[in-house]
Specification:
single chain, alpha/beta, Glucose Oxidase, domain 1, 2 domains, 8-stranded mixed β-sheet, 10 helices, 16 strands, 20% strand, carboxypeptidase activity, Class_I_gatase-like, protease
Length: 346
């Protein structure tokens, strides 16, 4: 496996970059964005620094790459946070100055389309952090979710081991950012049944690789995923987006990863709780349950065919649902299937 380093951590009072390497949604939802910035200052004691494309929709990929490179190059910036995801960060990473990123490693926080950049940093040997959107999580209506807030604080400021906690309640029906009053009340939440464990009762340790499954398929098509041998022994992180990919497509993507020789090298997988509702697809509770069950079945099928030895942990709160736990991408994880515990080293 590639040798990876943990970048130095920020401290309260530090300046941190806030960037939009994917979609410039702060331009469309400034009320949500400003709440996220305020919480960065008030809850975490960090001073956000914006870049020229942070509030621009459709900025040229070269300009977004220039902002990212500048954020890493600036010695007064100690961490870099993405505002949100999107769908075209794959066009940005080729324009990054990799020599600058390697020479100035910093903690980077993002998820969803940011899988492109997390994977890019991984290939440069830099540990980054899956999660922590300025809009979605810091700008959460009502208040910060306590599990998200605690996980993000630990990932930002500490370097030790951290036990992930199953959420007692979860949500996937966000408030409508188009509504000016959307920030007044917390999103609707539902009772959780906790994590679901499959596979052998054993303890697995490794380094995390993966991300949003749809984006991983784009990266495979663009030939930007390392050889199977370079990722052997990784703990596979996978989660799906608000586009609600059908179960058969989830299976096919994993089948293709299996045919590439990747799945067989993974001793375990952390599977994010499936988001099963979106404004354009308002599934009923019964339909949501069926969607999640079908997705779990598709993932189980693929691993049974290509990696029957793997420990699988389903419904971990690390993807497109609320709350969101932060995990170190390329960082260490310990999965204890005997005592049903997951610990990560930040």
């Amino acid at each position: 496996m590639t040798s990876l380093i943990y970048p130095p951590k920020p401290r309260p009072g530090d300046r941190v970059a806030v960037v939009s390497p994917s979609a410039g949604l702060p331009a469309l939802f400034p009320h949500v964005y400003e709440l996220g910035l305020r919480r960065l200052r008030e809850e975490y004691g960090l001073e956000p620094v914006e870049y020229p494309t942070t509030r621009i929709m459709g900025a040229d990929p070269r300009d977004r790459a220039r902002d990212l490179t500048a954020a890493f190059a600036d010695p007064t910036i100690t961490a870099v946070l993405a505002t949100v995801g999107g769908d075209d960060l794959i066009t940005v990473t080729p324009h990054l100055d990799d020599a600058v990123l390697r020479a100035n490693p910093k903690p980077y926080f993002g998820y969803s389309d940011n899988t492109n950049l997390l994977n890019h940093l991984h290939r440069l040997g830099i540990v980054s952090y899956h999660g922590g959107s300025v809009l979605v999580h810091l700008g959460r209506p009502g208040k910060l979710h306590p599990l998200t807030a605690d996980s993000l604080r630990a990932a930002l400021f500490t370097a030790g081991w951290y036990d992930l906690t199953p959420a007692p309640k979860w949500g996937d029906e966000p408030n409508d950012w188009n509504d000016p009053g959307c920030l007044a009340d917390e999103p609707v939440m539902f009772p959780s049944e906790g994590w679901r464990w499959q596979g052998p009762a054993t303890v697995v340790e490794g380094r995390i690789w993966g991300g949003n499954l749809e984006v991983l398929h784009w990266l495979l098509a663009a030939d930007r995923v390392g050889a199977a041998a370079s990722l052997a022994g990784s703990v596979f992180l996978l989660e799906t987006s608000e586009e609600l990919p059908p179960a058969i497509e989830v299976y096919r993507i994993l089948r293709n990863l299996g045919e590439r020789g990747l799945l067989a090298t993974f001793p375990a997988a952390l599977v994010g709780r499936a988001k099963a509702w979106e404004f354009a697809r308002r599934l009923t509770p019964t339909e949501k349950q069926a969607y999640a069950e079908q997705q779990r079945a598709a993932i189980t099928r693929a691993f049974a065919e290509y990696a029957p030895h793997a420990v699988l942990v389903f419904d971990v709160d690390l993807g497109h649902t609320d709350p969101q736990l932060i995990v170190p991408y390329g960082g260490e994880v310990r999965i204890d299937a005997i005592n049903e515990r997951i610990s990560v080293r930040y």
